[in-house]
Backbone:
């Protein structure tokens, strides 16, 4: 009897190992299909002399695309623009987010419960809508921000410029960086500052010599990640830079594929895409190294830790007023200008005299437009299916990482490669792949769903893995000792405990998929256009800003409700 029990115990691990091997093989095949195949097609296309032809219609291989790029004066211009844009965006976002994180997490600033959520409001605004809002708010003709600056300071500003692109992208990057930095400032032990104060150091000296050095590793890691995000940012530099032909790498790749002349240069666009991936890979490598070594700078322990806020004293009201001014100018005014324009028959400044001319006519036009209803259905279908597929595969991948041994962890790390593929480049790669493969998805919503699922897998799987690592293995062991199979353990123990995290991940992907422009733009056709592509066409082709503003408000409302629901679910999970 004992030998039979031992035999059964020996067979069970072998069966489990076979199941894990099968799971890892399946995950590896899917990752190769979603990530490696498109990247391989991109490299393949960059080695083809396919100026007007598709890459697989050209025989032989050549490095002419790279030679032409590196010998072109345009490369230096695009590279310099990209460098200035990325550095400027990171600098703006860094200064604002570090200041806000310190004020909200370390000081007794008044109005924190209102101001802190307000500074995160751009998370609910798709980048395309943010760009349109700032065009309306800061254009020199009738933008309220531009007019106010000119009347009060005597300076004229041009939103269609590199500084304009940097300002808007920097504001857009503040929420993400703030969310990475705020926990670090909240956990920083105040005793270090108190020791410096006892030694006679003033606030500025304590901040410069104590707080900033201790938080520098986290700030550097967040900055490296924002560099990657700024490199791939498309909507803001495209909308604000293209009118004056100011290109960065991401907008130049799209312009090479969809030029106004209608004659795309597939080979050169692919070569630029390869260069952009390599740049992103370098930044991702720096980011991962920085986060790996961050343990050397831990300053919070379970012993003697307390977090007492820094007293601002007489500066409480001025500092709160300054933060309120930032929220008003950076977020409130552009959104109000967008709503105002959506109610007007033509572009005009905000004024009391024009109140009588406001109407819902623009909303009536877009809601009676058949193309809008079709785009709305496409947008909802794409967002719903993308969120469902991504959450399902992310759960599978996270389980493989935590339960699948070294191979499962290696596959999980492989998915991180997607972080280094800018969305515009991913769109190009997927476009070429499905023009080549005999799979009838080109021109349908499925090609966009596949690309978006690939894009959101890395972050989604890491969101679920974080929750999975918090589960005590003892819960599963108790179930196994009671005779439950591995499948029963997953179904009755693991899945219910992970359900809140999976639900939050689903909502996160859904909210982001609503406003994804570069992938949808590159893969769009008459049958699969989305709301954000329709908005792009309204601005670029007809310059009908009142109707475009009405559509942008609709997109903003959908995104805001989604983000609110994400945050609401996250709050409920912590109750």
Residues:
């Amino acid at each position: 009897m004992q030998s039979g029990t031992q035999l059964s115990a020996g067979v069970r691990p072998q069966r489990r190992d076979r199941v894990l091997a099968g799971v890892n093989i399946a995950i590896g095949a899917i990752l190769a299909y979603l990530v490696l195949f498109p990247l391989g097609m991109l490299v393949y296309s960059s080695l083809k002399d396919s100026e007007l032809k598709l890459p697989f219609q050209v025989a032989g291989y050549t490095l002419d695309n790279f030679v032409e790029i590196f010998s072109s004066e345009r490369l230096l211009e695009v590279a310099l623009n990209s460098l200035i844009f990325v550095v400027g965006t990171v600098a703006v976002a860094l200064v604002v987010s570090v200041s806000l994180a310190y004020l909200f997490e370390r000081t007794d600033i008044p109005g924190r419960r209102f101001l802190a959520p307000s500074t995160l409001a751009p998370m609910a605004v798709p980048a395309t809508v943010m760009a349109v809002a700032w065009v309306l708010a800061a254009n020199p003709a009738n933008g309220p921000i531009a007019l106010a600056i000119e009347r009060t300071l005597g300076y004229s500003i041009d939103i269609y410029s590199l500084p304009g692109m940097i300002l808007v992208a920097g504001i857009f990057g503040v929420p993400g960086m703030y969310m990475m930095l705020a926990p670090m400032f909240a956990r920083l032990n105040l005793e270090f500052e108190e020791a410096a104060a006892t030694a006679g150091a003033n606030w500025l000296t304590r901040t410069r010599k104590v707080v900033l050095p201790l938080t520098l590793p986290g700030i550097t890691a967040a900055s490296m990640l924002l560099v990657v995000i700024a490199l791939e940012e498309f909507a803001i530099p495209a909308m604000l830079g293209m009118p004056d032909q100011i290109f960065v790498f991401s907008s130049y790749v799209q312009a090479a594929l969809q030029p106004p002349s209608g004659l795309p240069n597939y080979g050169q666009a692919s070569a630029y895409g390869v260069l952009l991936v390599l740049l992103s890979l370098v930044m991702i490598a720096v980011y991962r190294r920085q986060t790996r070594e961050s343990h050397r700078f831990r300053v919070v322990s379970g012993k003697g830790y307390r977090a007492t806020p820094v007293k601002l004293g007489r500066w409480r009201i001025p500092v709160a007023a300054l933060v309120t001014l930032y929220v008003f100018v950076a977020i409130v005014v552009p959104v109000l200008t967008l709503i105002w324009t959506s109610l007007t028959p033509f572009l005009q400044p905000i004024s009391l005299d024009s109140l009588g001319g406001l109407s819902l006519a623009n909303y009536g036009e877009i809601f009676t437009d058949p193309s809008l209803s079709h785009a709305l259905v496409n947008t909802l279908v794409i967002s719903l299916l993308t969120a469902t597929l991504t959450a399902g595969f992310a759960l599978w991948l996270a389980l493989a990482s935590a339960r699948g041994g070294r191979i499962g962890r290696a596959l999980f790390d492989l998915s991180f490669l997607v972080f280094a593929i800018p969305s515009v480049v991913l769109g190009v790669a997927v476009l070429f792949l499905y023009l080549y493969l005999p799979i009838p998805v080109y021109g349908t919503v499925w090609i966009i769903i596949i690309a978006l699922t690939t894009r959101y897998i890395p972050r989604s799987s890491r969101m679920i893995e974080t929750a999975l690592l918090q589960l005590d293995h003892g819960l599963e062991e108790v179930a196994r000792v009671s005779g439950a199979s591995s499948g029963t353990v997953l179904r009755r123990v693991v899945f219910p405990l992970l359900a809140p995290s999976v639900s939050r991940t689903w909502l996160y992907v859904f909210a982001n998929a609503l406003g994804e422009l570069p992938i949808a733009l590159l893969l769009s056709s008459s049958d699969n256009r989305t709301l954000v592509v329709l908005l792009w066409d309204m601005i670029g082709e007809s310059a009908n800003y009142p109707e475009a503003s009405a559509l942008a408000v609709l997109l903003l409302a959908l995104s805001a409700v989604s983000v609110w629901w994400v945050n609401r679910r996250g709050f409920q999970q912590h109750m």
Q: What stands out?
A: Residues 197 and 203 are 8 Å apart (CA to CA).
